[in-house]
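Q: I'm writing up a methods section and want to include an example of the input and output format. Could you take the sequence below and give the corresponding predicted structure tokens, formatted cleanly so I can copy it straight into the document?
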Amino acid sequence: MWSMSTPVGPIPSNPTVAFTTPPNYAGRLSHLLAANGLNPLSSPTLLVEPTPRTISALKSYLPPPHSLNALFSAVASDLECPLLSPFGDREFTIAALGKDSELLYDEYLTKFGKNRDRIRVLVPLVAMPSGLVRSLRDGRRQRVLCTVPIIVDLEEPPVVPNFLRELESSRWIPVLVGTYETP
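A: Here is the clean output for your methods example:
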């Protein structure tokens, strides 16, 4: 029988670092901690993956979309015709960072327009807002739709204001759209 005096094993000589992260990051973080002489202790968080089943049965239980991608997808799925004309010389750019880029599949993109030559998909190699700004290059005073969180009862972190400043210094005109709320 176990008691408080029952030994559970040797006490590690190196500090233990407990962390919570999605499983896809846990291995890399564990390796980095161990390489620096620490004992990693991972506690997984939620894992969100695509499902082959339809979510229509769950729609009444789901909160509003948390990204413009989800919002556009919902709107585009109800359209009779695509948003973009197949003709014209201007590109429509859709950009995403990191894992969000996995949502930019062909079936989704054709909801914007049948002529894929008019749709530019931008996924910067550096999955950070500054990497996105560099990938967009000179905005030539064009508008760019920016999906941002609505900050409630918190001090806004510098990420969004810094991103907007970088866009403006690259001659973009940011148009903010609050897509989800932080409690």
